[in-house]
Design goal:
about 325 residues; 2 domains; four-stranded parallel beta sheet; 11 strands; binds 6-O-phosphono-beta-D-fructofuranose
Amino acid sequence: MLKRIGVLTSGGDAPGMNAAIRSVVRSGIYRGIEVYGIYHGYKGLITGNIKKLEASDVGDIVQRGGTILYTARCEEFKTEEGRAVAIEQLKKFGIEGLVVIGGDGSFMGGVKLTELGFPTIGIPGTIDNDIPGTDFTLGFDTALNTIIDAIDKIRDTATSHERRFIIEVMGRGCGDLALWSGLADGAETIMIPEKKENIDTIVERLNRGLQRGKKHNIIVVAEGVGSANDVAEAIKARANMDTRVTVLGHVQRGGSPSAFDRVLASRMGHKAVELLLNGDKGKMIGIENNKIVAHDILDIVTKKHEFNNDLFQLAKELSI
Ligand code: F6P
């Protein structure tokens, strides 16, 4: 059985990462193994920025956003030489298994470590919800609630001034943040990379609404579609409508994790330790139909997150 494992966070941070770190550390200690924190993602693996974590080191973090282990996007780890140094560091510290909390880029690192024979388990931590093999990624629910809180406020002023608001949310390749927040907030238009819509069609819809007496609108744009400012310009060029733009930006990535994300993080962290102790490697933990599952990490990095067309259609139907 393994005696010592490591945990790191990598890529964009997400609320719930701390709760996952806490779960890995305490589930490990509960089972009699040592858990080491690797700081600054894969970069810390290369530089040896590694420290043993006690149960008390992860006290008072379950409710905190961000990641106490810090995070980074590391180019050096993408090279063979970088990975060789990382393996040496792991050996030096006697670490025999690793939990990587991050997004698809971070899992590529997990695949490489697994190919080098090093047992690695991934936990999907990203607000984008763009990972296949899981219904939800850590941080998505919290980010969604942050967005909804902002849009609710914007809606008040949109109504008062009878304006069109174009709100840009995060999500480069995946429109889930825009789709779910748009549905939850009754947006008239949701612009996502998976279902690109012609700007003329959108303006036609806005005009139809105007004729029916609708004087304010919420349009949610995923950043992967393009900038909200460009959308506003395109609308202005076609229709004489008073528009305003809000780019929510990194506010979406911070804040205290929701109850859902804390529970999910706790369940996933626990499962990751269990898998390592069972001798598993090269897996990613997911949640499907409220069951914690494990998939081959290589499968995950070669597949795409499934787009929920039913939700998109529902949002359209409800925003007539
Ligand atoms: O992947 C998470 C994410 O927040 C994306 O939604 C966004 O496009 C990107 O990270 C922003 O990255 P950075 O913080 O490096 O600007």
